[in-house]
Amino acid sequence: MTRDDIQKIRLFLYNRCMLSSEWPFSNELLVQAIEKEVVQSEPTLVQENGQWKCKRCGNEKQTLFYEHDCYHCQTLCSYCRHCIEMGKASSCTQLLTCNASHFRYKPQENSCRWEGVLSSHQEQASIQLIKAVEQQNQTHLIWAVCGAGKTEILFPMIEKSLQLGMRIGIATPRTDVVKELSPRLKIAFPSIKQSSLYAGSRQKNPLAQLVIATTHQLLRYYHAFDVLIIDEVDAFPYTYDRSLHYASSRAKKPHGTTIFLSATPSKRILNTPSITVTKIPVRFHGKPIPQPRFQWIGNWQRRLSKGSLPPTIHQWLMQHENKPLLLFFPSIEMLKKCSSILQGLSIKHEFVYADAPERHKHVQSFREGRTNLLLTTTILERGVTVENLQVAVIGAEQPIFDEACLVQIAGRVGRKQAFPDGDVVYWHYGVTHSMIKAKRHIRQMNNEGRK
Ligand SMILES: [Zn+2]
Ligand SMILES: [Zn+2]
């Protein structure tokens, strides 16, 4: 194995983690690299007391391990379903890592080109973040209302980290958010090598100093980040949480700092040992979050199923004609029923849900004001910022609309300085605890913000 080989391997695998089935060089080179300890190798799946565990994603749930007649090893071999979207982690593969925690980037002075001004609340938070980065080994939560301008809060801390030659990872649950965030960061830090990763994207820059990725893609990193920022940490269902924890603890360096961002942190996050918290109860423009109102619309499911629109909804659509309107539905079925009724009434609209065809195109067209009315499931509860937006929830009593979700939905409204207000209505067939808690949550944040 030549020096060039070592360099080639390191460049490819630095602080990353991959399956032996993804190894791009010859088998002979892999054997040598392991012997020379350039690459570390361990079984991807291990069995302890008859229980499988996936070393890549941390999954221990036995029902997520399947057996198959394996093409590679020609035997009946097991694999992990939990991280299957990253390629098959099977019992015949090895997990390869190339540890280079000692690797440092060149310190970058004055890398931030953003010229905006932080509000005093934002500034306070950004000072706390810089402290957390300097001290290392910290866990810090920024608890900020929707519309607090949390991306800008990160800028001074990112600049500081770059000055210290650190590597920064930003993980967010949604591909939409990766796509929205990366151009903003490129403008703010034009001289820094960046990489954005989501399912289906190509890794162009393995050594990028600033990495923006979906949370799943974190599994590709190993002791890579000095600072790891996890956006919308509350957006995960409970079962996902453990795996997120596993992925983030492997992706960051052992002494790295973790920063959580959330508008609606769960009790579990708040109870994380030794976590420090900065709260931002005010939006960057200083105006309160619009209070949601409750409105009873009767048995709306029956009405929609019979092909008619509850009159309240029809009136609302007429009243706010020409403004951007977002209608949230608890199910795709009801969304589609409503869509065909609107079509019958010649009311122009589009609709989106997780697997909808041309979903990204429709969201983009709504963002740019080419569509005024967009029907959606909860997938758009976060990440959409549109000027003068009004939102309504149809069937707010349905269990899918929990407190955090309803708070997020209200948080879509009034985000722009020019239009700090707007209507937020929860249409329901019976008020639930979640609805009351959401309303209380917003009132409390607004009260704190006034102080
Ligand atoms: Zn797995
Ligand atoms: Zn196999």
What does it look like?
A seven-stranded parallel sheet has the order 11-12-10-13-14-9-15. The protein folds into three domains: 3-97, no CATH class; 120-280, P-loop containing nucleotide triphosphate hydrolases (Rossmann fold, 3-Layer(aba) Sandwich), CATH 3.40.50; 293-450, 3-Layer(aba) Sandwich (Rossmann fold), CATH 3.40.50. Helix 3 packs parallel to helix 4 and helix 12 (403-410) packs across helix 13. The longest helix is centred in the C-terminal third of the chain and has 18 residues, at 433-450. The chain is built from 13 helices and 21 strands. By secondary structure, it is of the alpha/beta class. One zinc ion is lined by residues 70, 72-73, 77, 90, 92.
Topology of helices and strands:
Blueprint: H1 3-13, E1 17-19, H2 27-35, E2 40-43, E3 45-48, E4 51-54, E5 65-69, E6 76-80, E7 89-90, E8 94-97, H3 120-135, E9 139-144, H4 150-163, E10 168-172, H5 175-188, E11 194-197, E12 210-214, E13 225-230, H6 238-251, E14 252-262, H7 267-270, E15 275-280, E16 293-296, H8 300-305, H9 311-319, E17 325-328, H10 332-344, E18 350-352, H11 359-367, E19 373-376, E20 390-394, H12 403-410, E21 424-428, H13 433-450
Parallel strand pairs: 9-14, 9-15, 10-12, 10-13, 11-12, 13-14, 16-21, 17-19, 17-20, 18-19, 20-21
Antiparallel strand pairs: 1-8, 2-8, 3-4, 5-6, 6-7
Helix pairs in contact: 3-4, 12-13
Bound molecules: zinc ion (ZN) (2 copies).
